[in-house]
TrEMBL record:
This protein's name: Putative acetyltransferase
The organism's place on the tree of life at top rank: Bacteria
Sequence ranges assigned to domain N-acetyltransferase in this UniProt record: 42-189
Gene Ontology molecular-function annotations: protein N-terminal-serine acetyltransferase activity; protein-N-terminal-alanine acetyltransferase activity
InterPro entries given in the database record: Acyl_CoA_acyltransferase, GNAT_dom, Ribosomal_N-acetyltransferase
SUPFAM superfamilies: Acyl-CoA N-acyltransferases (Nat)
Major enzyme class: transferase
Keyword line: Acyltransferase, Transferase
CC annotations in GO: cytoplasm
E.C. designation(s): 2.3.1.-
PANTHER family to which the protein is assigned, alphabetical: RIBOSOMAL-PROTEIN-SERINE ACETYLTRANSFERASE (PTHR43441)
Length: 213
């Protein structure tokens, strides 16, 4: 429950189809059930972390631990906001946004996952667009970044569709093998010049201090 000391549960971004906010505990467990059912198309490896490829029970526990850890370790200098994505009132995935020294750097890095039945419907693009409205219009970011493995075509397509531009490459590893990561960056000026989904924000002012604003 939101309190004057912890107003984050009231922070919400809404589009025509989606709502992004922190989940309640029952909603978090519903997300864990979705993760247990599967988040990765068989034969693909879009994530660096191993949780998405683990056994169903471990996938569920990983979602719970990641959420609790993000909030327990929160500080204005180093934060990770694990927003649940809701469609038709039901959780369908997570759109996270994180930053270090946000008050000085004004830069965020995002990540996301959607349950398999909800992929391919444009929800990932709409969720990231809502997140961008939150960070640029709500929190005053100047740059949003995203990292994708070179063979993660859906994630790369979302970045390009929303106006991100290439920002270099990294020689990386993925599950014990070499891999290439593509970096993408979207500036506030580029975002301002891009057509975007209408998004309504609530609860931003009450949370300003938690983000270092």
């Amino acid at each position: 429950m939101p309190t004057p000391h912890w107003p984050l549960p009231d922070l919400t971004a809404r589009t025509g189809r989606l709502e992004l906010r922190l989940p309640t505990e029952p909603e978090l467990h519903a997300l864990a059930d979705l993760a247990a059912a599967g988040v990765v198309v068989p034969g693909t490896r879009p994530f660096r972390s191993e949780w998405a490829y683990a056994a169903p029970a471990e996938r569920a526990r990983a979602v719970l631990r990641a959420h609790w850890r993000a909030l327990a370790q929160w500080s204005p200098e180093d934060w990770n906001l694990p927003l649940a994505v809701f469609a038709d009132g039901r959780p369908v995935g997570v759109q996270s946004v994180r930053a270090k020294e946000f008050a000085l750097r004004r830069e965020i890095l995002s990540g996301s996952w959607l349950a398999l039945p909800h992929q391919g419907r444009g929800l990932g693009t709409e969720a990231r667009a809502a997140m961008l409205h939150l960070v640029f219009a709500g929190l005053g970011a100047t740059d949003a970044t995203s990292h994708s493995f070179a063979d993660n075509a859906p994630s790369i397509a979302v970045s390009r569709r929303l106006g991100y531009r290439p920002d270099g490459i990294e020689r990386d590893t993925r599950h014990g093998e070499p891999a290439t990561t593509l970096r993408f960056r979207l500036t506030r000026e580029q975002w301002d010049a891009t057509a975007r989904t209408e998004t309504r924000l609530t609860g931003v002012d009450a949370c300003a201090e938690l983000f270092g604003n």
